């Protein structure tokens, strides 16, 4: 009988509950892929009295430290900065593998956490932090490790794309589109992170670090969100056959042997037939240019519980394999 891999789940919200459900529903599949069963030892939340669809209430705990201390793999899907960082650091120091979907934490503290993980000899995986189910981190960091990435550009924030798409294709006035996006759950109660381009900035920093290994921070991003746009901007773009999108981009400049990485997030008026202009509603698109591979295009859902859980669980399987093979 193989020893189970013990998994601590931090968070049972949109993403965490979807991860917990899949771990139960597809237990046999994961056991076969890992070579040992994955045992969900507990789920840390703030409110243990609240029922969460498909999550065994007996697994809910408030003492996240005690949970982390039992784990071979810590899966952090609680969000936020300080608490998530403390718990991830605790897991790493214990020798646990870590999986996280927390883009803001990684944008702020990723290099320090990666250094700590390297020192402890454990993995820190974060595919879900950028564009949810679309496997972009692995593509720029691993699949293209034998090539030279020259640029990355994309629609990486589904919420702002939903707003801009409503204006461009349905003719909804900009302020009304923002309000509708909020009502339909495409924007958080505080939509600043999306509308001001902070979410997109965190994602392009993570992608650029993965592609070029450069120690980039949020301060390196030339950032402009969509709040300054007016209906006049949309009318002008449309009259010129263009469509406004919030584009996140990263590219190299300067000497080939010591390239500089430039990062930007800003609204851009694109020709209608531009591949980035094709992103509809809340979808995401990423275009990666590499010296030998040429142009690669990745397209899909960049958010959602099940979609993000797909990426979290992929990382979890990889992390659990490291545990069983250690
Ligand atoms: N939602 C998406 O589509 C998506 C996509 C990509 C990445 N992500 C990332 O995934 C992470 C989770 O997102 P989400 O949408 O699932 O968030 P969420 O729905 O707000 O869920 C957060 C969960 O974490 C728990 N939690 C928060 N702070 C806690 C604390 N201090 N101690 C214990 N538990 C705590 C909450 O407990 P209670 O339930 O008791 O409040 C809740 O279960 C975030 O980093 C987010 O950026 C999300």
Automatic annotation (TrEMBL):
Residues noted as binding NADPH in the record, renumbered to the chain: 103
Enzymatic class: oxidoreductase
InterPro entries listed in its UniProt record: Asp/hSer_DH_NAD-bd, HDH_cat, HDH_short, NAD(P)-bd_dom_sf
Residues covered by the Homoserine dehydrogenase catalytic domain: 135-317
Protein residues bound to NADP(+): 11-16
Cofactor: a metal cation
Record's keyword terms, sorted: Amino-acid biosynthesis, Methionine biosynthesis, NADP, Oxidoreductase, Sodium, Threonine biosynthesis
Pathway: Amino-acid biosynthesis; L-methionine biosynthesis via de novo pathway; L-homoserine from L-aspartate: step 3/3; Amino-acid biosynthesis; L-threonine biosynthesis; L-threonine from L-aspartate: step 3/5
Signal peptide, first to last residue: none
Positions annotated as active site in the UniProt record: 203 (proton donor)
Keyword Cell membrane: no
Pfam families according to UniProt: Homoserine_dh (PF00742), NAD_binding_3 (PF03447)
Gene Ontology MF term list: homoserine dehydrogenase activity; NADP binding
EC number(s) on file: 1.1.1.3
Domain (Aspartate/homoserine dehydrogenase NAD-binding) ranges: 11-125
Binding positions (L-homoserine): 188
Gene Ontology biological process terms from the UniProt entry: methionine biosynthetic process; threonine biosynthetic process
Catalytic reaction equation(s): L-homoserine + NADP(+) = L-aspartate 4-semialdehyde + NADPH + H(+); L-homoserine + NAD(+) = L-aspartate 4-semialdehyde + NADH + H(+)
Family per record: Belongs to the homoserine dehydrogenase family.
Function: Catalyzes the conversion of L-aspartate-beta-semialdehyde (L-Asa) to L-homoserine (L-Hse), the third step in the biosynthesis of threonine and methionine from aspartate.
Protein name stated in the entry: Homoserine dehydrogenase
Lineage: Bacteria, Bacillati, Actinomycetota, Actinomycetes, Micrococcales
